[in-house]
Design a protein that fits this description.
Elements: H1 2-11, H2 18-28, H3 32-59, H4 61-101, H5 119-130, E1 133-134, E2 147-156, E3 163-172, E4 175-181, E5 191-198, E6 203-207, E7 216-221, E8 224-229, H6 233-260, H7 284-293, H8 296-299, H9 301-310, H10 314-328, H11 335-358, H12 373-381, H13 385-405, H14 413-438, H15 446-468, H16 475-492, H17 500-544
Parallel strand pairs: 1-5
Antiparallel strand pairs: 2-3, 2-8, 3-4, 4-5, 6-7, 7-8
Length: 545
């Protein structure tokens, strides 16, 4: 024993050299028996060390498991943080792009109570909003008209003060449009043209609050009078201020136009007119640009996009947009190019809305993840990968919910759990494969996939707990069901999905409760048997006496 302790201390020294130790041992040993003894000592030390190591592992086993779980939780939180940062990055990029595209001359304009937008942006916003109103196509034909403010209001009868209808008001720089809300209408058109008021013939009067009749203002145009109610006092104040400001701007602009249209005294030209002089020629660059932009496919591009969208030819529409971007990429930014971009931009917005509707959960979910491939790929081509990722995962979440809700849980618990695991994990695997196929070139979207997988596993855990733990099954049946679910998670690890720790954390509370309930049952049964045995023993002893 002393020899073993000495050998152990010697080998634990920091300067211990195994090769030198063997060489010294060979020189000092006189026979083979000494070497065999030393070999036995070393082997026994190896066995003792292995035994101590195994004991330490068993002793700290729970700590190892807890550490691994904490690492898994931390990894999940880091993925969620990465997903949030990716979303913030996309928002910042969109804001930066919008600020760069804003006309620099807008900063030189006089500040007003309205947002500093260019007339082009305001005109595009007005076009987009009025597409939702039925019967107002002639309003867009007035040049220079743009949107100032809009919002939902409630119209009241001025005599009986009873509610008439819900309306949406569009305040433009020269008029006020009131559109009625269509409650049963689905699609892009949600309002119907009701009335149009010119700002020059309009008077706006505040209405004092009287009990429930509050946040109202009156719009008068002889001989008509209308009363509208805003959603809050703040919105009412904004309407009154902006209406007053817009009327003053309209009056000042009309006055300025009248002054500019006054006839001026005719002036004689400084140089005599030469009837035989040649007309000035356009510069080659401007002439070439006008010729290229007058090509038939360029002029017909907005209409071709409308046809592709109506025929659901999404690939053809995106191909036309790519061709257009390649064409105008190297062109100078002229007014013609800007107008053409504005018209095409409205079609891009319309195409995006259609693709978003294709990915909405209201569509048919029976096609599986492949049914969304077409819309997702076109959104990615339109440089909207983040939106495509969100819509795809939301669609698959609804598909998982629907699949779990439509399952028929009939028969034994083991059979039901086997069916539940097969349906859920097959859906999870299909979604992951389709995600990897669609977003292979966008690694920043994978954090959203991890968050979605945890959410889907939460749905599975709820259904699993309801089927297994709420049915008060025996502990052996519960163990078989949990082992079956864990085996499916292990199969997914071959495809790069390690969800074992997540599933264990979701089921841990119910498993502890089941074990505790089984323990209580065993204790009660043992107490009952002991009491019965004691009574039997007592009765036997009394009978003998």
């Amino acid at each position: 024993m002393a020899e073993m302790s000495r050998l152990q201390r010697h080998m634990m020294e920091p300067q211990f050299d195994p090769q030198q130790y063997v060489q010294t041992l060979s020189q000092q040993s006189d026979a083979d028996r000494d070497l065999q003894e030393q070999r036995l000592h070393v082997q026994k030390l190896v066995d003792d060390t292995a035994l101590n190591l195994k004991r330490n592992v068993y002793k700290n086993y729970h700590q190892f498991i807890e550490t691994a779980k904490e690492i898994s939780y931390l990894e999940s939180e880091m993925y969620q943080l990465s997903h949030i940062l990716t979303e913030q990055k996309s928002v910042m990029e969109s804001i930066t792009q919008h600020l760069r595209s804003t006309d620099k001359e807008a900063a030189k304009e006089k500040p007003t109570a309205f947002p500093k937008e260019t007339e082009e942006v305001k005109q595009r916003t007005l076009t987009t909003l009025l597409e939702k109103v039925e019967g107002c196509g002639d309003i867009l034909e007035t040049p220079g008209r743009y949107l100032v403010y809009n919002g939902d209001l409630v119209e009241y009868d001025p005599e009986s003060m009873s509610q008439v209808q819900r309306v949406h008001a569009f305040l433009m720089n020269d008029c006020l449009l009131v559109a009625s809300w269509l409650p049963n209408r689905r699609g892009a058109v949600r309002y119907r043209y009701n009335s149009l008021y010119q700002l020059g013939d309009l008077a706006v009067v505040n209405v004092k609050d009287n009990g429930p009749m509050k946040d109202m203002f009156k719009v008068m145009r002889y001989p008509d009078c209308c009363i509208f109610q805003a959603e809050s006092s703040k919105i009412k104040k904004e309407w009154l201020e902006i209406l007053d400001e817009t009327k003053r701007n309209k009056a000042s602009s009309d006055k300025l136009k009248k002054e500019q249209e006054r006839p001026l005294s005719p002036k004689t030209p400084d140089t005599p007119l030469d009837p035989f002089a040649e007309e000035p020629e356009l510069s080659p660059a401007v002439e070439e640009d006008s010729i290229e932009l007058s090509e038939p496919w360029i002029q017909d591009l907005p209409e071709d996009l409308d046809v592709c969208i109506a025929q659901r030819d999404f690939e053809g529409a995106v191909d036309l947009l790519d061709k257009f971007e390649d064409f105008v990429k190297e062109k100078p930014v002229t007014q013609t190019v800007t107008q053409l971009r504005s018209r095409v931009g409205d079609r891009v917005k319309q195409l995006t809305d259609v693709l978003v509707f294709e990915l909405s959960p209201d569509r048919n979910l029976r096609g599986g993840p492949r049914a969304t491939r077409r819309a997702v790929s076109q959104l990615i081509r339109l440089e909207q990968a983040t939106k495509a990722c969100q819509l795809f995962l939301k669609n698959r979440e609804c598909a998982v919910r629907t699949a779990l809700r439509q399952l028929r849980m009939e028969g034994s618990t083991g059979l039901c759990v086997r069916t539940l695991c097969h349906v859920f994990f097959c859906c999870l695997l299909q979604t992951t494969r389709e995600f990897q196929r669609n977003f292979a070139a966008h690694p920043g979207c994978y954090s959203a996939l991890v968050v979605w997988q945890r959410l889907a596993l939460q749905l599975f855990a709820d259904a699993f707990s309801q089927q297994v733990f709420d049915s008060k099954e025996c502990l052996s049946s519960i163990a078989e069901c949990v082992a079956l679910a864990c085996s499916h998670c292990e199969k997914l690890s071959n495809f790069g999905l390690d969800l074992t720790f997540t599933l264990q954390s979701l089921l841990l509370k119910d498993i502890k409760g089941a074990v505790q309930a089984s323990k209580d049952v065993i204790i009660e049964a043992t107490k009952h048997r002991n009491s019965v045995r004691a009574r039997n023993t007592l009765s036997v002893s009394l009978s003998v006496c």
